Amino acid sequence: MPQGPSFWFDTRIYLAVATALLVVIVFYNPYVAVLGAILLCSLYLYGRERHKERQKALDSYLYTMSNCIEEGASYALKSLPLVMMIIDKEGKLYWHNDVLIDWFGDEVELGESIMGICPEFPLDKVWGKSGREVFSTEDKYYDVIHEPIIHKMDHEELIIAYISDITASEKVRAECVNSVPVMAYIQIDNYDDVLQGLSEGQRTSVVAEVNKLLAEWVAENEAVLKKYAEDMYLAVFNRQNLNKCLQEKFDILDRVRAIHIGNKIPVTLSMGVAADEDSVAILGERAQAGLDLALGRGGDQVAVHVGGKLQFYGGKAKAVEKNTRVKARIVAQALREIIDDADRVLVMGHTNEDFDSLGAAIGVGIMARHLGKELHIVVSQPGVSLSKLQEILADYEEYQDLFITSAQAMPLITPQTLLFVVDVHHPELSAAPELLSKVDRVVVIDHHRRSEKFIANPLLVYLEPSASSTCELVTELLMYFDDYLEFNKMDATALYAGIVVDTKQFSVQSGVRTFDAAAYLRRSGADPALVRQMFRLDFETVKSRAEILNQAIMLPGGVVVAGCPDNIKNAQIVAAQVADMLLGVEGVQISFVLFFLEDGGIGVSARSNGAFNVQVIMEELGGGGHQTVAGAQVKKGTMEEVKRQVIELSAKYIEESAENESNSTTRG
Fold first, then answer.
1. Is residue 502 annotated as involved in ligand binding?
2. By its UniProt entry, which Pfam families does this protein fall under (predicted)?
3. Is 447 one of the annotated binding-site residues?
């Protein structure tokens, strides 16, 4: 490498020192001094020429190096194994390297949009932010690192993006994900009821057909199936085949339901499926919890824990009424012990209580009074049902100060206080959710299909989706609570009213046990005349009904949708009544009535004649309920937006139901 300027500077110092020495020598020997001067001048001239040559060589070297670095940097930018580009808000290219063309295969000019050659590029996600995004196009996966910059000339905001091809690693990751284990607990949820009354040959044929269909299903999904009880199975398969099952919406439910070998009741399955967990132990817990949840919702469905979320499939068959009351007797005996240990009993239903909620609460009060316990019913707010019930109970001393608010209940809570929650199990829909966090001893009695959200750590749960109403469940508990249990005419009438309102005058979801409960209440003094009095309507309500019916529209598939004007009083109650009325219209299978909520948002009352499960539709809107009676509250959205959602969801549900029936028929 050529020497720098500092070398010539040092040389001149040496020459200066030599000159000084020559001056001294002049005094001693002039001839030697002259000779030294000539030599010194020669050295100076030689050194200067050498310095010029070296300086020229250094400049040439630096120039060459500069050009090499510039060319190398340019080559590196153009030849890096990733795409580099600068774009604006519309995706217009300001600069890019050659790899962009190599990867995406089309010639692109500066000023054109990146979306023209790569429509999948996530421009909306990367604009104005620093970070990274992954996107795919055809069979390729790309990772985008993006950073906002400012153009110096016109101060325009741009984005510089670095795109790398991660197809190989993504494929490996996908293979790993697809191969992780999935666990499923499977149960024939009406095994005894299906086989009841069949000959031994028919029993064997039904069970063999179920086993055959399950064996075919696991073979299709490359799974392992183990039967560990006469109606219980365990299946293990991988994530890739779970995705296939999700796409097919677990059509094994429809295949099994289509079995008809002498059985009068369709065979139904319930499954709990779990995936994407850290250990096999957690998989097992999640799968078992999913099965319990599916059974709690009435069976004939699959509860899938996947990706940290819970999804439901199926739920089309009606919950089959149990023929025995063994569970009711056991629960009644357990309740007697639990109430006996309490110092005070509080009961609450759901917000905006109806007659089923209030009647069940009064039924629980019968048990508490029989054991001499202080009783209070916590209500959310004054409503039509509560007002009419209070009018009838006003002349009876035992019902004075029975109904209290949440604020009045708070000071009454002690460690031994027992809280009953009836006709609801969703904590946020209860009359006083704040009580649930204050009371340690909670009992849940409900007839709705179990939802994902459930009251935490209850002491006892009595959940029967096959029951017509919570009042029916409470009435059966009263039958077995105590042989010497007595209750008056008003107690029996309140329970009877709850059954009447939820069965639509015994026309919906009414089984043998429903009529047995009603007969028991009639023998105990229930007065149908008082029930009719509670159900009477004022003239304004009748006019409101007519106004809603006038706006109702009939859609294909037997679906009717109507909306309440915003000036209707007690809109929620009126909407529910109109939804019930619409089911009486020829050809109507599902009715939806929308109304404005008092605290903002849109409410939906949904009813079905039993052919379809409106609970599944309402769960899509964040609600829930029962197969024939459900509802939802949508906090964001206008009346027209929610109506459009309801129409789309119902059309999709009916279409899928028709496809599944067609597929089942084809297989049969």
1. yes
2. DHH, DHHA1, GGDEF_GdpP, PAS_GdpP
3. yes
